[in-house]
């Protein structure tokens, strides 16, 4: 693979940019090589290593974060494009020392083994539950004009962008189902 | 990855002007395809013109009953739009059958139409590919061509167009609104894409630097009875092995009107005019649908590994139309 983390320690205009955005509620400002992805900005420049680099090509979902409240793959977002926007990572899902209901459900249901994909699963599930509450249909929704019911197959379809190499899927589905029902 | 300059244009005219002035500039939309291709070294722009914050993000009902969809409307927002869900289910279904939740939140309408083939040889800079490097040859023609074209390919290129959205828009006779240095103009989607021929590096009829600003769906009451059927190698999050967009309008059991388009068979979304012609004016039956698909596929030339696409495309034609006929 070509590319990889870029170092943006210099203001090597015009190939770098000053980027200001909000991360987990705090304002951050950093100068970055324009090639730096949001994922690398978080991990290499802001010491937020929760979001993980799996495939770095948008296929595995382990880098999922919420951008202005919507789940996205941070490996396919150039950090320079998020200037002025708001990012939520797994570190911001709950206060320090606290767990969100989703995180607690993942523990209760043993919804991970190695844990590498878990930050992405959590952020993706958080965004997905918001999509369901807005009434968004999925490919498996029979009636496009009625509110979607979050069955297990709907959860699986809506979480298809997150792979788990340990195949903890049944427990992930159980944790998401319980959180949605609560 | 090559270093690039980043530009956020003030308006559409500014974006078009930068592309006109900079020979190695490219538009950046949702980035789901371009950023990946930059990492792979397949695309190497020196300037990125980020168009996603241009005011092209609205879906507007038109006085004639049609719908105008801005180029930066995200795939997920479009699939969830109440008018799309009610009046153009084929469009909602095509969008929802594509990619994953995260990617649909990022991908734009315009970018989706201009995404590049997922032919593995195009994406691998160590392999011959006339689309990526004109004149270098086509490693796919006698290579791993299971996913590639059965219709309208050339010795120079056997790539398929990967978009599901484009297939639905082809069936709906969508008009693509574009803007270049001469200003705005309309391009019917039937005229947007090219056959590969001897210049597979040219995928559309748009001159370099042309910006898609919107797509316009004509009013089509029959589209309330429409669907998109996609077959993949796995249940979700995969490109099509075969797909069909179908609109069916019956008068009793007689086909009054029908629109059919296929994905995963050609370099462009494939509007199945011959199949439509076979169907129109005749009493609908699954056997008629099969004959119509056969008529469309009569000139297909499967490659070594993708002959399955012919019976597959035939089967999904029958299934999609039969479902609509009994709906």
What's a concise summary of this model?
The complex is a heterodimer of chains A (182) and B (327). Chain A has 182 residues and is of the alpha+beta class.
What features would you describe in this structure?
The complex is a heterodimer of chains A (182) and B (327). Chain A is an alpha+beta fold and 182 residues long. Chain A has 5 helices and 5 strands; from the N terminus they run E-E-H-E-E-E-H-H-H-H. Chain A folds into 2 domains: 16-92, Roll (Ubiquitin-like (UB roll)), CATH 3.10.20.30; 101-181, DNA polymerase, domain 1 (Orthogonal Bundle). In chain A, a hairpin with a 2-residue loop joins strand 1 and strand 2. In chain A, helix 2 (101-108) crosses helix 5. The longest helix of chain A is centred in the C-terminal third of the chain and has 16 residues, at 118-133. The radius of gyration of chain A is 17 Å and the shape is globular. Among the domains of chain B are: 5-49, 2-Layer Sandwich (Uridine Diphospho-n-acetylenolpyruvylglucosamine Reductase, domain 2), CATH 3.30.43; 225-325, CO dehydrogenase flavoprotein, C-terminal domain (Enolase-like, domain 1, 2-Layer Sandwich). Helices cover 27% and strands 20% of the residues of chain B. In chain B, a hairpin with a 2-residue loop joins strand 6 (175-180) and strand 7. In chain B, helix 5 (89-96) packs antiparallel against helix 8 (165-171), helix 9 (273-279) runs antiparallel to helix 10 (286-296) and helix 10 (286-296) runs antiparallel to helix 11. The termini of chain B are far apart. The mean pLDDT of chain B is 98. Classes of the chains: A alpha+beta (182), B alpha+beta (327). The interface between A and B is large, with 45 and 38 residues.
């Amino acid at each position: 693979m070509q590319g990889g983390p870029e170092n943006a320690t210099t203001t090597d205009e015009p190939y770098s940019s000053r980027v200001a955005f909000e991360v987990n509620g705090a304002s951050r400002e950093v100068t970055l090589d324009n090639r730096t992805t949001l994922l690398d900005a978080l991990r290499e420049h802001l010491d937020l290593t929760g979001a993980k680099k799996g495939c770095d090509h948008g296929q595995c979902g382990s880098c999922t974060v919420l951008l202005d409240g919507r789940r996205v793959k941070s490996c396919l977002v150039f950090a320079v494009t998020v200037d002025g926007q708001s990012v939520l990572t797994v570190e911001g899902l709950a206060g320090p020392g606290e767990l969100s209901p989703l995180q607690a459900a993942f523990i209760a249901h043993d919804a991970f083994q190695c844990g590498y994909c878990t930050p992405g699963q959590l952020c993706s599930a958080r965004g997905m539950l918001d999509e369901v509450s807005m009434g968004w249909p999925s490919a498996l929704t029979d009636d496009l004009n009625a509110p979607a019911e979050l069955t297990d197959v709907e959860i699986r379809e809506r979480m298809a962008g997150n792979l788990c190499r340990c195949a903890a899927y049944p427990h992930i589905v159980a944790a998401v189902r319980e959180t949605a029902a609560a | 990855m090559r270093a690039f300059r980043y530009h956020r244009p003030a308006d559409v005219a500014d974006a078009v002007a930068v592309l006109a002035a900079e020979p190695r500039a490219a538009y950046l939309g949702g980035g789901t395809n371009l950023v990946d291709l930059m990492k792979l070294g397949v695309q190497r722009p020196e300037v990125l013109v980020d168009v996603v914050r241009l005011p092209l993000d609205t879906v507007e009902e038109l006085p004639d009953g049609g719908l105008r969809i801005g180029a930066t409307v995200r795939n997920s927002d479009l699939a969830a739009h109440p008018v799309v869900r009610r009046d153009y289910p084929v469009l909602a279904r095509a969008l929802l059958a594509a990619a994953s939740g995260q990617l649909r939140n990022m991908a734009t309408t315009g970018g989706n139409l201009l995404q590049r083939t997922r032919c593995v040889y195009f994406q691998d800079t160590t392999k011959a590919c006339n689309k990526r490097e004109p004149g270098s040859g086509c490693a796919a023609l006698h290579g791993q061509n299971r996913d590639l074209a059965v219709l309208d390919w050339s010795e120079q290129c056997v790539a398929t167009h990967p978009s599901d959205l484009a297939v639905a828009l082809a069936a709906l006779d969508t008009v693509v609104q574009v803007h270049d240095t001469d200003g705005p103009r309309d391009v019917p989607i039937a005229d947007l894409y090219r056959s590969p021929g001897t210049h597979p590096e040219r995928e559309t009829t748009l001159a370099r630097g042309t910006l898609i600003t919107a797509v316009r769906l004509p009013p089509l009451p029959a589209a309330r009875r429409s669907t998109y059927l996609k077959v993949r190698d796995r249940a979700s999050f995969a490109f099509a092995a075969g797909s069909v967009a179908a609109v069916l309008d019956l008068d009793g059991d007689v086909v009054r009107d029908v629109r059919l388009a296929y994905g995963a068979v050609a370099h462009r979304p494939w509007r199945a005019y011959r199949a439509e012609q076979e169907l129109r004016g005749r009493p609908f039956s699954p056997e008629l649908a099969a004959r119509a698909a056969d008529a469309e596929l009569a000139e297909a030339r499967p490659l070594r590994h993708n002959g399955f696409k012919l019976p597959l495309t035939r089967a999904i034609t029958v299934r999609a139309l039969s479902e609509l006929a009994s709906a």
